[in-house]
Every structure is written in C-alpha cells, then in structure tokens.
Amino acid sequence: MDFLMNAEATETIAAIATAPGSGGIGIVRVSGPTCRHIAEGVLGHCPAPRYAAYLDFRDADGSLIDRGIAIYYAAPHSYTGEEVLELQAHGGPALMQLLLKRCLALGARQALPGEFTRRAYLNDKLDLAQAEAVIDVINASTEAAARSAVRSLSGEFSAYIQALLGRLIELRMYVEACLDFPEEEIDFITQGRVAEKLAAIQQELSAVFQSAKQGNLLREGIQVVLIGQP
Predict the structure, then answer these.
(1) Domain check: are 71 and 119 in the same one?
(2) What is the CATH number of the domain that holds 91?
(3) Whole-angstrom Cα distance, residue 36 to residue 47?
(4) Of 85, 104, 123, which residue constitutes the final position of a domain?
C-alpha cells in the first residue's frame, strides 16, 4: 500500500474539473510534480504562484488552442497539497478535450474519479469527514443539504468530534490513575466527576447520531406515497 501511495505521489494527474457539457468557462486541473513543465509547454512559461495570468494556450506545434486564465499553486499551498495548475478556458467540450489532451501529451495521466480529493486527504489537506463532504456539496439538491454539506467541508463536524475525543481521553486518565495507583487513598473516579462527565458525553453523542440521521435525510431525501382518489 505504501508503495502504491509513493508511486502515485510521483505521478502528475490532469482532468476536466468542470461539469460535462457546454459552458462559458471550463477548467482543466493538473496536480503533481511536473506542473511547472506542463505550464511551460502550454503557456510558454510558468506563472507566478497564486496570480491569475491571461495567456495563450498553445498546442505542440505552436498553434493556438485558446486564450484564458492560468493559475499556478506551489506546494503545499493548494487543494491537493501538491503543485497545481488550473487552466480556465472557454467551456466548449471539444476545446476542453484539446486542452486536456495537450496536458496528457506533456506527461500527465488522466485522473481517476475523486483522485484530486484523495490526494488532498493523503496530504492532510482534508480529513476523512471533509473528503466525504465534497461529494455531498456537489450533489446537494436543496439549500438545506448544501448548507449542511458546506459546514462539514469547512471542518465544523470534525472539530466537534475532536473536542468530544479530547474529553474522553481526559476521562480515561482518571481510570488509568485508579489502575496504576490502587494503593492511594484517593477516589480518582469520584473526584474527577467521571460518571457525570461521561453521561454528558453520551447525551452529546446521541445528539450527533440524531443529526447524522437528519443529514442522511437531507442527502437522500424521503420517499412519500400518496394514496387516495385524485
């Protein structure tokens, strides 16, 4: 597994980052160690990090593919934590394929579904809950579902769970103290109000489970059967 992860980290990936179909703007995203090389091949040079540059996008023979905005992100200051290049052009499907084909010809490989987010997770840019929230944000069909998914993506849920975990670790310390120092005439469990604090944590966990059920309803929706005469 470590070998596969290391091999993956040495590869540069590319994909069309915008939804299929025609649009005013389309984006090709590239991530990996050869982004600068690809930028030089498509743009003639690599733009300064985190600056939007309006440039020509060129094919291998020097012919113009399109003109658009190019943004280069140096590692680790990017979505994936790697070098990232985003090419924003007109959003025609044929043009997007031409631009992607040019990036692949310069050494990138076609990204797998979700691979940019996978790399963000592996590089500690997102935790697992945030990574799972990405698809929820994309697929949200209601305003409530979108707001809920964005809160998870921002790390709100993860921070809450980490706080609960910290409190559980604190309670475990009292239990370990009782086991390590049984000869002491101190009731660590009572003195630390362990039972009271544990009951409070259990109540909060019940609220988390209930919130998770509500989140699932927002994500999946409810099937309703209408019966009766019209």
Answers:
(1) yes
(2) 3.30.1360.120
(3) 9
(4) 123
Please determine, for residue 129, whether its predicted confidence score (pLDDT) is greater than 70.
Answer: yes
Residues whose CB falls within 8 Å of the CB of residue 150, separated by 6 or more in sequence, listed in order? 133, 137
Q: Which domain holds residue 194?
A: 128-220
Nearest CA to 24 out of 89, 91, 69 is that of 91
Residue that is last in its domain, among 74, 107, 123: 123
Higher-confidence residue of 211 and 67: namely: 67
Q: Is residue 50 classed exposed, middle or buried when 0-12, 13-18 and 19+ CB atoms within 10 A define those classes?
A: exposed
Task: Tell me whether residue 24 is in a domain.
Answer: yes
How many domains does the chain contain in total?
2
Instruction: Tell me the angle at which helices 115-122 and 128-139 cross, rounded to the nearest 10 degrees.
Output: 160
Neighbours of 101 (CB within 10 A): 15
Query: Which residues, 6 or more positions from 223, have their beta carbon under 8 angstroms from its beta carbon?
Result: none
Q: What is the average per-residue pLDDT within 123-134?
A: 88
Q: Which one, of 100, 121, 99, lies nearest residue 14 by Cα? A: 100
Cis, peptide link before residue 230, omega less than 30° from 0:
no
Query: CB within 8 A of 112, min separation 6: which ones?
Result: 13, 118
> Does 230 map to a domain?
no
* Confidence (pTM): 0.72
pLDDT tens-digit readout, 6-24 = 556 689 999 999 989 999 9
